[in-house]
Amino acid sequence: MLNLDGYDLVMLSMVNKSIRSQTKDNLLWRKICFREFPNDIIRMNYEGKDISLNNNNWFNLWKEIDKKNSTIIFAEQPQFSLMIPPCWTKNESDGLHPKIIKTTMPYFDVHAIFGTLMPGIYQMVWEIKIGSLKNGQNFKFITKVSDKDWKKTINYAYKPRPYEIENLSNKGWLKFKVPTKIFVQENSNVKTELRRYTNLEENEISLWIKSMELYSVQLVRCC
Asked: What domain of life is recorded for the organism (predicted)?
């Protein structure tokens, strides 16, 4: 079991009760945490946190670190974003989305970088809230997977069709899962971008998007 990564071990635990009991071993999950997230564990040690075997539920710690490394909440983690443009302002929304960024601009892009990802196939999930949309407004989701030196890059892009954009409008907070599957190899960097553009003219300002709020972007592993 130690040869499996954390995600595969979770999938294995769903086979039956006997295997599930074997996958609950705390020492096993401690070894997986140190193997998959060494920098995070070392950082915990420098922060004076107890990382001994008996004082932690290492499976819960694995879930916590895995979620942290695969999710960027923009208003809380601006250091993980290359740039949050001036057109975005920080706001508060509700209990589930306490810190967000918001814009009323007709065109923009916002992007973020992920590191410390286990190899696998992922999908990008954007948690967004979009106001009224009219014809002539478009979104594009772009993801680049590069080696650790940013020299070799694989590009993925997805442009929603008009009916998909209409289904995003005035629906409140929603999680839009980009259909494109992303293959991540070991030691890869992932840069993702949400771009919005319009072919409306300035004198059609009343047709522009009323507002867009952005909470987070997450890489969800498929297999």
From this structure: Eukaryota
